[in-house]
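User: I'm curious whether this sequence folds into something compact or stays loose and floppy. Could you predict its structure so I can see for myself?
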Amino acid sequence: MDSVSLHKNGHVEGISVGELKLEIEGMHCAGCVSSVEKALRGLEGVETAEVNLPLKRGKVEYDPAKIEPGAIESAVKQAGFSSRRMLEQTSVEESIESDQKEFLETQSLFRIALFFSVPLLLFAMGPMLGMPLPGWLIPESGSRFGSWIQLLLTLPVLFAGRDFYLRGLPALWKRHPDMDSLVALGTLAAFGYSSWNLLIDGGISGLYFETAALIITLILLGRMLESRSRRRAVESVRALLRLHPKQAMLLSEEGETPIDIELLHPGDRVRVRPGETLPADGLVEEGASEVDESMLTGESVPRSCSTGDEVTGGTLCVNGMLTLRVRRIGEESTLARIIRMVEEAQSGKAPVARMADRVAGVFVPVVLVLALLTALSWWLAGAGTEMVLTRMVAVLVIACPCALGLATPIAILVGTGSGARHGILFRNAAALESLQRLDTLMFDKTGTLTLGKPVLEEINTWNGWTESEVLRLAAAAETGSEHPFGKAIVEAANSRNITFPKPESFEALTGSGVNATVENQNLIVGRQNYILAKAENKQLPEGWDEGAEAQTSVWMLVDGTLAACMSFQDLPRPESKEAVAKLRSMGLNPVMLTGDRLEVAEYLAHEAGLDEIRAGLLPQDKVNVLKEYQALGHRVGMVGDGINDAPALATADVGIGMGSGTDVALETADVVLMKNNLSHLADAFRLSRATLLNIRQNLFWAFAYNVLGIPVAAGVLIPFGGPALHPVLAAAAMALSSVSVVSNALRLKNFRFAQAS
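Assistant: Here's the prediction. I'll summarize afterward.
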C-alpha cells in the first residue's frame, strides 16, 4: 500500500509505506504485547508497530526500501511468538476462525487438567478436610505409594499446560519474560520441590504437587473464559460478515442464472426477491420495495426504494422484487468498507493505553525481582523452606499482568462493536477517545443541518406567464436533469398533479443550467447571471435586486424572454434543534459553517438553535476557521457530508461524517453516523465517554489488584496476624481478575442508545 498525506496518520506525502498485518500466536498478557512491540519497533525501517492482545493481531507500517516483511516476521519469532500474514480480504474471517480454534484447544486442555486435578486435590487435601481415605493413599500416614500417585496425577496436568514452559522458559532465556514465564517458574518451583522431597525421603511431607496442578488448571480456566468473552466481543464484526450472501441471481439474455457472489462484476444486472439479501451495491432499474437497512445503519424503519434509487449490498429486500444494476462489489462495496472500518477501530490502540504499555514493559521483570526479594526476606527471617517457596510462588502467580493487558483493548473492542450495531462507526481507537474531549463542534449546513434536498418554495412570473404553466414547462425541461433544483421542480409538478410533456431536445449546461426544446419552444433554466446574459431584455423586473437569492433560485427564459424566477428552500432536519440543544447541554459549543449567504444561514441557525454562524465560506475557508479555533486551544470536531467537506473533516481533531455522504464519509471521517440523523451525535459522544470510563475502571482495578495482591501474596500481613495467600488462591484470583475486566467491558454491549430507532 502507499500512504496518503492526511495529517492524522503521520505519513509524509510521497513516501511509500508498506503495511503488514500479522496474526500472532502465544500472547497472553500485556508483557507479551510489550515484548512483541519492542522487538518490532527496534527494527530499522519499521515506522509504527501496534499489537492487539484480545484479537491476537499486529499491524506494522514499514519502509520497503529498508526492511522486508520476512525480517519483521523473524523478529516476532525471535521474541518467542509465532505469526502468519493476514490478507486484507480474509483477515476478519481468519481471526474469527482462529478464536474458535483457540477456544476449543484451551477447553480441551482445561478438561484434561481438571480431570486429573480433582482426584489429586482430594488425595492431597482430603485428610485435612476429614475425608475418609485409605491409609495407603495418605503420605502423612507413611505411604510412599500415595506420594507417587500424586506425582503421576500431576504429570498429565503439566502436559496440558506445556505451553507455559515451551513459551515462558525461552522467553526468560531471551530476556523477554512474560506471564508464561511467571507461571512456568512458579509451578516448576512447586513441582521441583515436591519431587525432591519424594526422592529424598519418599514424600512423607513437603508435597505441593496439587499446588502446581491447580495453578495450571485455574489459569487454563481463566483463558477459556477469556477466549469465550473475546468471541462475544467481536460479535459485531461476525454479524456484519453474515450479511454477505453466497449467491446472486444474474440476469442475461438467456434468463436468470444463479452464480457465486465472487463472480459478479460492475454493470451486471441481478434480480432480488422478497426476503433475499441484496448481493452488491447498485442502482434500482426496475421494481419497488422496502429495504431493511437495520443491519448496517441500526435504523429499524425500512426505506422505500424504486427505480433510480441507490441500494446497499447486505441489506434485506422486504416486500417487492427488484432488478439492480451492480455498481460496487467485493472490497469496494459499502459493506466491505464498513467491516474494514470496524476492524481497524477494534485493532488499534487508544492513547490512553500508553500508560499501561509503559508499565507492562517493565512489569514482569519487576515481579521476578519482587519474588526473589520475597524469598530472600523470608529466608533471612528464619522461615523454613516451605514458607519461602510458598510466598515466592504466590507472588509469581498473582502478579501475572493479564488484566492489565486486557483493560484497554477489550473495552475498545466492545465499545466500537456496540456503536457499529447501532450505526455509529469509529475509524480507529484514537477517534473513540478524542471524541469525548471535544469542546467545539462545527456543522456544515447543506445535508448536515438541512435535509440536503431543496424544495420549490416560490415562483415569481413575468411577461404574462402563470405559475402552473411555468412549472409545467420547467418540469419538462428538467426531466433529464440530475441537479437538486431540477429534481425539486419535477417533484413539485408531480405533487400538484401537473402533467408535462417530454422535451424534444435536452442539453445540460455545466455549471449554468439546462437548455431544452419543449413544444417547439426554446427553454433555458439556470443560474440568474447566465439567464440574464442570454435574455433579450436584460432589465430585471421592478423591485428585484441583481444579487437577491442568486444561490437559492433558478430563472427561466422562454424563447429569449424572461418568464420566471423559482426560489428554493433547503428544509432543516426536523431533529436539528433538539440535537443541537442536547449537544450544548453536554458542554459543546455548536458553530455553523456554510458557503451560503448570511441571510439564508441566519434563518436556518434560528430554526436549529445555533448562535454562532460563519457564512459565505469556500472549502478552504472552513479549514481556516477550524485552524483559527484550534489555535485558540479549542478541541474541534467537524460534522459534514459532502466532498467539499473532506478538507475540513481531515483538519478537525475529529471528523464526523453523515451517512448520506457514505463514500466520502467512510474515506475521510473519523466517525460516521450511518443513520444520517443528527440525533445520534449525542449517542456517539455518550458512547465515547462510557467507553473511556470503562477503560479507566479496568485500568484502576488492574493496577489496584496488583498493588494490593502482591504484598498480601508476599506475606507482609503475616507478622501482624493477617492472612497468608496460598498459591492456589493466588492463581484463582489472577484468573478472576482477567475475567472480571472482560466482564466489565462486556457491559458496554448493553449500552442504552437514546436514539434506538
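Summary: Residues 91-125 form the longest helix (35 residues). The radius of gyration is 34 Å.
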